[in-house]
Task: structure prediction
Amino acid sequence: MFTEYKNLPDTARVWIYQSNREFTENEISFINEKAREFINSWTRHGDDLKGSFTIKYNQFLVIGVDVSFNNASGCSIDASVHFIQELEKEFQLDLMDKMNISFKNGEHINLVKLPDFQKYVREKKITQETIVFNNMVNTKEDFEHKWEVPAKNSWHKRFLVN
Result:
């Protein structure tokens, strides 16, 4: 059962899918339509899930479920992953590569592989204050407050030079 993203409680569980490139306007329209359809049919053992999605920076798809209504289970999570895989195939995207890391350079979003991220840290192109995207957050509240943060406040800090 679809609800507007703003209506999800702060405790909603979220999954962040980072694209290896920006979505086009046509892709965004398609994703909006298909994500709404998916969420309207999303269930856990036959019980409706109340969920939503949002797209950030034309590059991140965030799917959320209201766990106070019904919690997602293994099968329903698998269904959401299958939905993401269908989007990947449809648009030749990579939405699940955890070795891709995004960070900001001014207002520009850069996406690099982990070894390149580490190289940029050594070269001091990425510092403690560089804004990174912490795709490991798992609640709406954390997404809104701890997703886009200085590297020193994220799991990325393990790679920073002291």
